From TrEMBL:
PROSITE patterns: ABC_TM1. The lineage of its organism: Bacteria, Bacillati, Bacillota, Bacilli, Bacillales. GO terms for cellular component: plasma membrane. It comes from Paenibacillus macerans. Its main location: membrane. It is found in: Cell membrane. This is ABC transporter permease subunit. PANTHER family: ABC TRANSPORTER PERMEASE PROTEIN MG189-RELATED-RELATED, SN-GLYCEROL-3-PHOSPHATE TRANSPORT SYSTEM PERMEASE PROTEIN UGPE. Keywords: Cell membrane, Membrane, Transmembrane, Transmembrane helix, Transport. The chain crosses the membrane at residues 73-92, 104-125, 137-160, 181-206, 239-260. GO terms for biological process: transmembrane transport. The keyword Cell membrane applies. It is a multi-pass membrane protein. InterPro entries: MetI-like, MetI-like_sf. Coiled coil: none annotated.
Length: 275
């Protein structure tokens, strides 16, 4: 056997073991979501003797799935929409404007990506309270926009450089001003990186726990993750319901990521490498 085949088999074995370790917690969550509490404590890895779908019906009611899902959708849609709109304009303008000021502003956005969230969460909470946006799903979406534009601008900035300037010059010759040139010519060409940014931000916002916990004070405004956290009592933890709730919460993320996985990888590569 050639050395190339041996290396290929070795890499495949390592990746298979890594995939097994990655998928095992998912297996445990799905399998145990169909068990009773007694079956779970008897064996976490064994298959259930009977599929208890009532865990999902009870979880559906206890976490107020429809209301919580709507809150998560509102926050995700507004947050992603704001990030894409602001970042596309800023990334385009910074990429096409030459000068020290433009480079400095871009570097500020890039440098902000290195700041840990935990170092700003207390000032952020106080500022949100002062601006009277704490406790609102719309205020939470506004904060997500502010926290998410730096990465999006970085990706847009690199992607715009791959678009020939001749296209903009042609639009200007036809009578388009700068905004018309952007929305009619440039923005449609940004679709690959826009899809990537939208999906990555959706995964972030949908699964985020800490920021909604800090900002949302009314149970009626809770996102899915926060509603699931309510099942963790001080003296009682209904693990079967908790796992069923987590599975329900993860389904939209898994479906969207699986469907758009190719666009994510291509968009990141094009947006980062071309920059």
């Amino acid at each position: 056997m050639s050395m190339k085949k041996i290396n290929s088999l070795l890499i495949g074995l390592i990746l298979s073991v890594g995939a097994l370790f990655t998928c095992f917690p998912i297996y445990m969550a799905v399998v145990n979501s169909f068990k009773t509490q007694g079956e779970m404590f008897a064996s976490f890895v064994a298959l259930p003797t009977k599929l208890h779908f009532e865990n999902y019906t009870q979880a559906f009611e206890k976490i107020h799935l429809l209301n919580s899902s709507m809150n998560s959708v509102i926050v995700s849609v507004l947050g992603i929409g704001g990030i894409v709109f602001c970042s596309a304009l800023a990334g385009y303008k910074l990429s096409r404007t030459r000068g020290k000021l433009s480079n400095f502003i871009f570097l500020l956005f890039v440098a902000s990506m290195l700041v840990p969230f935990h170092s700003i969460m207390i000032p952020l909470t106080r500022m949100a309270k002062t601006m009277q946006v704490q406790g609102s799903t719309y205020g939470l979406a506004l904060i997500y926009i502010g926290l998410g534009v730096n990465m999006a601008i970085f990706l847009y900035h690199g992607f715009v450089k791959s678009i020939p300037r001749e296209l903009e010059e042609s639009g200007q010759i036809d009578g388009c001003n700068e905004f018309q040139t952007f929305f009619r010519i440039i923005l449609p060409l940004l679709l690959p990186i826009t899809v990537t940014i939208a999906i990555l931000d959706f995964l972030w916002i949908w699964n985020d726990f800490l920021l909604p916990l800090m900002m949302l004070t009314d149970v009626d405004n809770y996102t899915l993750i926060l509603s699931t956290n309510m099942l963790f009592g001080e003296y009682n933890k209904e693990w079967s319901l908790i796992l069923a709730s987590l599975v329900l919460t993860a389904i939209p993320v898994v479906v969207i990521y699986g469907f758009f996985q190719r666009f994510i990888m291509e968009g990141i590569a094009e947006g980062a490498v071309k920059g």
